[in-house]
Automatic annotation (TrEMBL), chain B:
The lineage of its organism: Bacteria, Pseudomonadati, Spirochaetota, Spirochaetia, Leptospirales. InterPro entries: SCO1/SenC, Thioredoxin-like_sf. This is SCO family protein. GO terms for molecular function: metal ion binding. Disulfide bonds join 83-87.
Length: 228, 204
């Protein structure tokens, strides 16, 4: 794990009463250097057979769970690639088994906002936007492709990642509802105000998270763990 | 208000412009999501809530597992006691709902409210709240650890966030749970129509 120093982070979405551009303090924490790999995840399943493919309650993972694994195991070539087709519940269970936890959105985003050594934020955005524009590969590469200034790898350019509180924004996309949605759906009159609309790169991650359910699994959705 | 609309429009715009973003699910014949449900909670979990390995504290201080109420359907939602705006309306809605269910079916439904606020809402606070609101014995107020509260919110399709002033932004959703622990009906937003939930209760 990499020790992430305490710092300040500017959330993409502002809270109702915070000033535009306000930053929030992030406490120091530890974050996995790499996304969790197929090999690591299979070790978890060995000792926690309730998370085997085909054994998991529909509450905790949909039918796609470990969909890239042929039968019980991953392809040999994918040993050190990120595990994907995992649900929030399974990612959560893995991290707990390791004595860790899933990173909070603010922690993940803060670490992800740090550019590679000697580069600036633009470089980060370029990596992300290129990734958005690429055709997704059939097979994911080994972890260790993109490194940020803290020494954390692959937060961008490879997969989406689960965060602990992925369901913390209430963007409602139900066209049947009237536009007065916040006043009927939110406490504290909280409405979403994006701090920086030009930042499409983050915007996509927020949009992606907003569309998730805890039991969803997807080909390009994996995770890593954090620790206090 | 306006901003939310912008956000929504933008998300939809992205949805159509970045194909890979919305469509990186495998096409399993039996399950497809991602495209139609790119936004917000609009479905509950599949599977039984009784599979949740969570132990709560009741307002009486007793330990409580959801499967203790196995065998009778119940209505469940999440709130917090110090909330001034939506929660009182949510609770009023649930009272109204309980009344209607009793009128229609002759049964007093079990009502469960779980607090978002793991720090402040201990059994004492929740018991005081229950008394203040004059709610009957069929109501249970539960509190638990932060990670357990988050897990339940994920299962129920309720979004929430603690904000810096100690308040919570959250969606208001109540779910009808069958005696097997399945979410069989959901109502989103306060003041929404509850007829379908009541009809479902009659069938249980």
């Amino acid at each position: 794990m990499v020790k992430i120093p305490a710092g300040k982070w500017k959330p993409f979405l502002k809270e109702s009463e915070s000033k535009l551009g306000a930053t929030i303090p992030i406490k120091s924490f530890y974050l996995d250097e790499y996304p969790v790999t197929n090999k690591e995840y299979s070790e978890f399943i060995e000792t926690n057979p309730q998370w085997k493919k085909g054994k998991v309650s529909a509450l905790f993972a949909d039918g796609g769970y470990l969909g890239d694994w042929k039968g019980k195991n991953y392809e040999e070539s994918q040993t050190n690639s990120p595990v994907t087709y995992v649900s929030w519940f399974s990612a959560n269970a893995y991290c707990q088994w390791k004595g860790k936890r899933l990173p909070k959105e603010s922690e993940w985003e803060y670490a992800a906002s740090i550019p590679p050594s000697g580069k600036n934020k633009k470089a980060v955005e370029t990596v992300i936007l290129n990734w958005y524009g690429e055709v997704r590969p059939q097979f994911l590469p080994n972890v260790g492709q993109y490194k940020n200034g803290f020494g954390v790898y692959d937060q961008h350019g490879m997969i989406w990642e689960w965060v602990f509180d992925f369901n913390n924004t209430s963007v409602t996309g139900d066209s049947r509802q009237d536009t007065d949605i916040e006043s009927s759906l939110f406490c504290g009159g909280g409405s979403l105000k994006a701090n920086d609309f030009s930042n499409y790169a983050s915007y996509m991650r927020y949009g992606y998270r907003a569309g998730l359910k805890g039991w969803y699994t997807a080909k390009y959705l994996g995770f890593r763990c954090a620790k206090d | 208000m306006k901003n939310t609309l912008i956000v929504r429009t933008l998300v939809l715009f992205f949805c159509f412009s970045f194909y890979s973003f919305c469509d990186d699910h495998h096409s399993h014949a039996d399950h497809q999501h991602g495209e139609g449900s790119i936004l917000a909670a609009s479905e509950g979990a599949k599977g039984s809530l009784f599979d949740l390995p969570i132990s709560w504290k009741m307002e009486s201080g007793q330990t409580f597992l959801l499967n203790q109420i196995q065998g009778s359907p119940f209505v469940i939602s999440m709130f917090y006691a110090s909330c001034q705006s939506v929660c009182p309306r949510l609770v009023a809605d649930m009272e109204e709902l309980a009344k209607k269910i009793k009128e229609k079916t002759g049964k007093v439904p079990r009502m469960v409210l779980v607090s978002f606020d793991s720090e402040k809402d201990n059994p004492t606070v929740l018991n005081a709240y229950k008394k203040k609101m004059k709610l009957g014995e069929n109501w249970s107020f539960l509190s638990g650890k932060e990670e357990d509260v988050r897990m339940l919110s994920v299962v129920l399709g309720i979004n929430y966030k603690k904000i810096s002033n100690g308040e919570f932004n959250h969606s208001a959703v109540y779910s009808l749970v069958s005696k097997e622990g399945w979410v069989v009906s959901r109502v989103e937003g306060v003041g929404s129509n509850t007829d379908s939930l009541i009809n479902m209760y009659q069938k249980l």
